[in-house]
Specification:
Pdz3 Domain, two-stranded antiparallel ribbon
Length: about 350
């Protein structure tokens, strides 16, 4: 497969990020409108406006900006793009600050929820039109002198759980093994109708394209798998289950990050995501749609983290207000929001430099 040019990677990155950001901000916009809050600006990207238009019905300025790394909605009474309230904003009719606490909570939560909805819809669309690959977590062959052979796994074993997590298919099995090189895992296996437990330690193997060590089990599946097209109802159920499982895996990854166990190759900044999106688009529409679903769910989950300037930070402010019957002092909120923005900007710059340095060796 030929290498992608920088321009092709940028186009793929924008094709992936734009709908994800749009849906996120659309969630905020929809909830705000239902709450009677006036949305003054709906922006895809930050910085100078490239082009846009103003709605005659709502007065909202819809715009595309020069820096396509996110977006925002600015509501009446907001001081700036960080959603920090201007002094006296709670007294302004139609302002976000003047909305009831419950509505403010819903407006902020609606962004991440919209990302989960987009991810689920994209998964379901693929399952209805192309189908979902079904490959049972049944072991067909065990390679000699591998982690599986040393642990006592046998052909015909059906893996039903790993470290307390249910294993639905071979993809679940592969994913949990790959993320645990050299780490003992507690396998729950069905063998001849009875349940047994085995401790399996995947062998570490360096993956050159990903630049990380991955866990290797040393087994083959019992079949090639089948692709099953689903009815819309079944597809939505399966897509919701996959979105939930993906969220669990993301949280596990964040747990490894907190504990200092995450490998450098697992961290991708904007440059890395551009490369991945370009590669997915080169492989075809379906891989690109599935990657968009994955990124949307990632964005929704990350935004729920209680970091000032993220939606989770605002939700933490509102939770404090609900518990103590008074909001945090506006001065403190402003300091926390600006501090959060500074951290996020510094992290973005670091990730870009990290991506570039990694690709330069």
């Amino acid at each position: 497969m030929p290498d992608l040019s920088v321009l092709q990677q940028i186009i793929a990155f924008l094709l992936l990020l734009t709908p994800v950001v749009f849906f996120h901000e659309l969630g905020h916009y929809w909830a705000a409108r239902r709450a009677g809050v006036v949305v003054e600006v709906f922006s895809i990207g930050f910085g100078p406006e490239l082009f846009g238009w103003t709605s005659r019905k709502t007065g909202t300025r819809w715009r595309f900006a020069a820096i396509p790394l996110g977006g925002y909605v600015r509501m009446r009474g907001d001081e700036d793009e960080t959603s920090g309230a201007a002094p006296g904003a709670d007294k302004v009719p139609g302002s976000f600050a003047g909305a009831p606490l419950g509505w403010r909570f819903i407006i902020v939560l609606a962004g991440p929820v919209a990302n989960f909805i987009l991810g689920i819809l994209l998964f379901a669309l693929v399952y209805v039109t192309v189908g979902k690959v079904v490959l049972p977590a049944e072991i067909g062959e065990v390679m000699p002198e591998t982690a599986a052979a040393e642990a006592g796994l046998q052909p015909g074993d059906l893996v039903t759980g790993i470290d307390g997590l249910a294993v639905r298919d071979f993809n679940d099995l592969r994913g949990l093994v790959v993320e645990a090189p050299g780490k003992p895992l507690d396998f729950t296996v069905l063998r001849d109708g009875r349940e047994i437990n085995l401790t399996v330690t995947p062998q570490p193997r360096f993956n050159e394209p990903m630049q990380i060590y991955i866990g290797v089990l040393g087994v083959k599946s019992s079949g090639a798998g089948t692709r099953e097209r689903m009815l819309p109802g079944s597809a939505m159920i399966a897509a919701t289950q996959d979105a939930f499982r993906m969220s669990v895996m993301i949280l596990r990854g964040l747990g490894r990050l907190v504990k200092g166990e995450m490998q450098a190759g697992e961290v991708q900044g904007p440059v890395g995501i551009a490369e991945i999106s370009g590669s997915a688009l080169q492989q075809g529409l379906i891989p690109f749609v599935l990657l968009t679903a994955v990124i949307s769910i990632n964005l929704g989950l990350i935004n729920l983290m209680p970091i000032p300037a993220l939606d989770g930070g605002h939700l933490a402010f509102f939770t404090y207000e609900a518990l103590f019957r008074r909001p945090l002092p506006m001065l403190l909120q402003g300091v926390l929001l600006r501090g959060g923005i500074a951290i996020l900007l510094a992290l973005t710059v670091f990730l870009v430099l990290f991506d570039v340095a990694r690709r330069l060796g």
